[in-house]
Amino acid sequence: MVTNGKAIQADAGVPAKVPFWLDPKKRAIMYQIGVLCMFGLLAWYLISNTLINLEKQAIATGFGFLNKESSFEIGESLISYSAASTYGRALIVGALNTLKVAFVGIVITLIMGTILGVARLSSNWLVSKLAAIYIEVMQDIPVLLQLFFWYAIFYESLPSPRQALNPVHGLFLCNRGVIFAVPESHPAHKYMFIAFVIACIAVYVFRRWAKKRQDLTGRALPVFRISMVTIIGLPLIVWLVFGAPTKMDVPELTGFNFKGGTTLSPEFIALLLGLVLYTAAFVAEVVRAGIQSVSKGQREAAMSIALRPTQVLNLVILPQALRVIIPPLTSQMLNLTKNSSLAVAIGFPDFVSVANTTMNQTGQSIEGVALIMAVYLIFSLSTSAFMNWYNKKVKLVER
Asked: Whole-angstrom Cα distance, residue 169 to residue 247?
């Protein structure tokens, strides 16, 4: 009867119990647990073996060295720093220098790459060919060689500070870098910056409202002109309220160097030029491919309703091309950030350079390398997170 009952249950469609080693899902979980255990054991072996060897050689471990005096100078710093500062502060200076190069480089690269990508598709034969030649040449020259080239230009071609080139008042070019005048410190500058931030927020809110209004009524507002007037006008009003301060801090030659103004070092300029010119060539190809991914029918439809070429590009082509451009563009932004580590080759005090000096003085190589990996991982993940958010924002929403 039992046998017959089992047969009846099987005939009724009740699945028979399968051993876990024959169940594909359970077996896949077991394999993953096994691989995870293997990696855990491997990591435990490497870490324990390293700690034993360090103990045998009487090498201290840990991050306690970060609170010790660094005893070395850093040529460029966004925050106050001296040789009496700690190693931790020195590493912060290096991280900020890397962040400065990466941020400025990405902004300039995006602008330049977009212009080159559009120029590559220009109907003007000369413009198109010049853009194509630039892209081919810059892509084929390694970025490290470009850094060496621009660095040599400053030290070999430009004169010493006493014979510095002075093309315009307050601007000097020499082998110490580019020195130029800047406005003297004034309370108005802080409030102008606050006004600029408020204007940007106001423009963002206005653009969203204008878009909703256009969707509902079909009537477009001069959003660009109103935005520019707001962004420029609000800080300008604050500047006028504070008496329109115009006094400049003009650099002057004192002894063997300049005093006053602001200096961009040859290392920073060479690094920025090399990274921007190299990466912009790849960004241009990304932009070109994105624009070409938009069908010709979209362009023809836009022109049929009497839109100007610039309107067709800004309102029809680029918004659709962005969905294709953003993923590879993210990779190029990450490449620029990671390539900034080549700054050590020309003496710019980025995070890798400062960390190398720290490791040489303290002997904490493992900790130093771990910090380098952690900092670049944070920079890369932050950039990826922002670009992924923006990608979701502009992606095509299907009904």
From this structure: 14
Kindly state the DSSP code that residue 69 receives in the 8-state scheme: B
The Cα 198–Cα 122 span in angstroms is 38
pLDDT digits (tens, 9 = 90+) for 321-371: 888 888 899 999 999 999 999 998 888 999 999 999 998 888 888 888 889
| Coil/strand/helix, residue 8 | helix
Rounded CA-CA distance 66/368 in Å is 10
Residues 206, 214: contact at Cβ < 8 Å? no
Q: What is the dihedral of CA 254, 257, 261, 265, to 10 degrees?
A: 180
Region of residue 112 (left: phi > 0; alpha: psi -120 to 50; beta: else):
alpha
Rounded distance between C-alpha atoms, residue 100 and residue 182, angstroms? 19
The two three-digit tokens of residue 250, written as one number: 């003009």
Beta strands 177-180; 171-174: pairing state: antiparallel
pTM of the model: 0.80
DSSP tag of 86: B
SS3 call for 264: strand
Cα 52 to chain centroid distance, Å, stands at 40
